[in-house]
Amino acid sequence: MSIYDFSAKSITGKEISLSEYKGKVLLIVNTASKCGFTPQYKDLEAIYKKLGNDKFEILGFPCNQFAKQEPGTSDDIKNFCEINYGVTFPLFEKVDVKGPTAHEVFRYLTTEKPGILGGEIKWNFTKFLIDKNGNVVDRFAPTTSPSKIEKDIIKLMEA
């Protein structure tokens, strides 16, 4: 089993098989527009523009489970990200990332990389790094700046 066995709805409502990203390094992030970590969108977009989408993709999954910091509709979220941070990487519909209603992508990710405090995601902007073969390689805390992950992404892209 790999990340490619799952699908999710894009921010515009289109069902996307994650197998469309085969052969690319992925950084999957649960995001929120009203969080103290929201400025990480800027770093994420900078990495995305620098490394391109030939061999690398960032997949953003908005989530409203942490202090209701992502209250908007898909249109609200998309507009916020584009206007405030110039986000061009793929965004998906708002999902739950923990508990019994967690999206299957995040159930898989947290099973593969449970984290220091156990499986559940503790807050917005938890990041999962996936290699070109769809394997979960690493998990990063919300406090980890995306720029600190860049060298790990490049290493996987060159592997």
Structural class of the helix and strand makeup? alpha+beta
Topology-level CATH name: Glutaredoxin
How much helical structure, as a percent, in the residues? 25-40%
Note poorly predicted spans: none
Number of domains: 1
Task: Please compute the radius of gyration using only Cα atoms.
Answer: 14 Å
Mean pLDDT: 95
CATH-level-4 superfamily name: Glutaredoxin
- Based on the coordinates given, report the CATH architecture: 3-Layer(aba) Sandwich
Helical element count? 4
Percentage of residues in strands: 15-25%
Model description:
This protein is an alpha+beta fold. The protein is globular, with a radius of gyration of 14 Å. The protein has a single domain, classed as Glutaredoxin. The chain has helices at 40-51, 74-85, 104-112, 146-158; strands spanning 7-9, 15-17, 25-31, 56-62, 127-130, 136-140. The protein contains 4 helices and 6 strands. The protein starts with 6 loop residues before the first strand and ends with a helix. The strands form 2 sheets. A 4-stranded mixed sheet has the order 4-3-5-6, covered by helices on one side. Strands 1-2 form a two-stranded antiparallel ribbon. This is Glutathione peroxidase. InterPro entries: Glutathione_peroxidase, GPX_AS, GPX_CS, Thioredoxin-like_sf, Thioredoxin_domain. Keywords: Oxidoreductase, Peroxidase.
